[in-house]
Amino acid sequence: xxxxxxxxxxxxxxxxxxxxxxxxxxxxxxxxxxxxxxxxxxxxxxxxxxxxxxxxxxxxxxxxxxxxxxxxxxxxxxxxxxxxxxxxxxxxxxxxxxxxxxxxxxx
Length: 107
Description:
- The chain has no helices and 8 strands.
- By secondary structure, the chain is mostly beta strands.
- A 4-stranded antiparallel β-sheet has the order 4-1-8-7, with no helix packed on it. Strands 3-2-5-6 form a 4-stranded antiparallel β-sheet, with no helix packed on it.
- Strand 2 and strand 3 form a beta hairpin.
- It is globular, with a radius of gyration of 14 Å.
């Protein structure tokens, strides 16, 4: 039986570009990008996205250099099937000098 990760909120706790804007790509580990967003520290984005998965789902966050289009990994998180029924959960992307929170639930 497939489960769904219901992604609800994405929060910029600390941006890589302190005092500036991070250009971000949020994708599954298989490369499917489902959100591109510009964020400043303290910004919150409502995602309202359902992603089907079996077992576990890896979500990858990358920062995009707008001058060169090069991407730098900020980090990844794993959403697991054993989180079903645990309500809303938050995991952090912590890397490349940035910190972002992703809130979701498994349904």
